[in-house]
Fold:
Amino acid sequence: MPFTFKPIIEKVKNVKETTIEIENEIRHYFPIIRGKKLTSAFKFYNTGKEPLYIKDVTPSCGCIIPTFPKYAISPGDSGEIIFEYDSNKNIGHVELYLDIYANLKGELKKTLIFDLNVVTDASYTRDYEQQYDNELKKNNSLLLKKGIVGFENQQGYVANDNQVKF
Structure:
């Protein structure tokens, strides 16, 4: 007969507390290219004498989707909290965390922390001149129509009267 797990009941009465050990609960991931997804897992062990019930895993950002066991982890057994991080809305150094809410002895929650650098793809990144020219074209700028006349150290600008000024 195969072993089956019973889902955790939403309101469990008289649940005894237990302890948990997590492998590498603070992590520093290698950089990823913006728009890519990072999928990883935190392995944990129930080191206590009572079953471990994970009530919820709450991410610090909507860019993280966690998956966790919905069944009791017996004493001595292990499980995994898997997460998927979507880097679309971030750039630069990002520090994120997951809060585990469970029947933990002496603490309300256990926090998992990870950080990484989100970088742009070098073949996609336009240089300053390309960005400036595109912005001028997009706004149908007077600077494109009239051009800038003057010495290199003179800076042109457009005022409210649509006149190119020096």
